[in-house]
Amino acid sequence: MDSGSRSPRSLGRNDDSGIPRTTEGSVFHEPWEAQAFALALSLNGRGVFSWKEWAATLGEEIKKAQAAGDPDTGETYYHHWLAALERLIAAKGLADAATLARTREAWRRACARTPHGTPIELRADDFGE
Amino acid sequence: MAYDHADHADHHERGSELSEMQLRVRAIETVLAEKGYIDPAALDAIIEAYEIKIGPHIGARVVARAWADPAFKRALIEDATRAVRTLGAINRVGDHLIAVENTPKVHNMIVCTLCSCYPWDILGLPPVWYKSAPYRSRAVSDPRGVLADFGLQLPADTQIRVWDSTAETRFIVLPMRPAGTDGWSEDKLATLVTRDCMIGTGLPKRP
To answer: Residues B14-19: contacts with CB within 8 Å, 24+ apart?
Structure first.
């Protein structure tokens, strides 16, 4: 957590990096962002993790991504959000990374065999090799 | 198990193909729903609330009330968490909301240098620029320059205070009531209150 939430920061000067400007409008770019957002709120609401833990983990993911060259302009924000979510889900013992990866691959197979325009459903055999 | 989530637009454009991010989110949903940690219907309700019901109009009501009602303004400055609750706005458990008041001498702005802590329950979700690294760093190092980027020129002797939000402590800026609004109703006052003026990167609209 950053320092002194009640103390005003002093004035400083000056770099020339730009702040992205966007119009108002939808708060989510894509549906998965909304789903990831709601997952974190829901798990927090159930007491799986505190909001303080959440913010600390998200902050770490943002720093990690910055270090790896992410422009961190806010556009990739929900990528970091999702990384934090996966990490906390594993850390709290809800689902480990291997289970999530296996389920992700199952969805990929379900997706590949589903004709265009048809709802994608998972079947048991999607989990096979 | 049937999953029929909000990826329809995607189907139309690209056939049955899910992006890496969609696959990851679906995997989480599938596993956690199976284990009973989440309820997909509850997720939809959360999304709907933040897309439709919760937004800066709630904060605008708070500000307009403070402008119109000195007793409410005192209560807001003293304990914003409680004051906002009396207006019926929900507040996340454990959140501590602080209202910081602009005066002719002091202009306040809010930031989260760490990530994106923000008073969601009264302002909705933060704009993209609020989450960007340039805003997060420059709001602290060069607030006057940031305000200039937003088209806001303050008198040189106005002090700028920048408040760094955390997971537990959120801020809302209480802007100055615009001149020429004597006798205005709360509803009418609320129409002057913009999201950015409650973040401190803007001023209320002029009447």
So the answer is: B15/A116, B16/A111, B16/A112, B16/A114, B16/A115, B16/A116, B16/A118, B16/A120, B17/A111, B18/A107, B18/A108, B18/A111, B18/A120, B19/A30, B19/A32
